[in-house]
Amino acid sequence: MVSRIAAIVVGAVFLLAGASKAVNMSQWLRDARSQSVWKPVAVAVPIIELVLGGCLVGLPVSPLILGLSTALLLVFTAFLIAQIRVSSDVPCACFGSFLRRPPSLKDVLRNLALIALLFVSAALA
After folding, report:
1. For 11-22, what is each residue's pLDDT tens digit?
2. Cα angle: 14, vertex 10, 74; to 5 degrees
3. How far from each other are the two terminal CA atoms of the chain, in whole angstroms?
4. Terminus of the chain with fewer CB atoms < 10 Å: N or C?
5. What's phi and psi for 62, nearest 5 deg?
6. How far apart are CA 6 and CA 82, in angstroms?
7. SS3 sequence of 32-84
8. Are 66 and 7 a contacting pair, CB within 8 Å?
9. Is residue 57 within 8 Å of 11, Cβ to Cβ?
């Protein structure tokens, strides 16, 4: 039960993040471009978030989905840390146009908490 709840929480966050980018794709693409993210990657990010989020919420706990979700969060976290290290003032855009502030330690800690939930889900599955 705890394993499933942990996966659903992360899935819900992915769904919110992906949907917020998809709803205002033009703003997301501008933000991604200002962060030097390649357009094909920027277009793929919300799709990947929505697919993984849907799998985490709607399917039984799967080591493959947990692993892919963890990998995605690790990439996002590394990117955030790089942006923080150079004192980027470009909006994080982690949740599309709903979050219009530069990346911060809060974003890194949020991602680490989500990764911890994925580990809990995997350990208790």
Report:
1. 999 999 999 999
2. 75
3. 9
4. N
5. -130, 130
6. 28
7. HHHCCCCHHHHHHHHHHHHHHHHHHHHCCCCHHHHHHHHHHHHHHHHHHHHHH
8. yes
9. yes
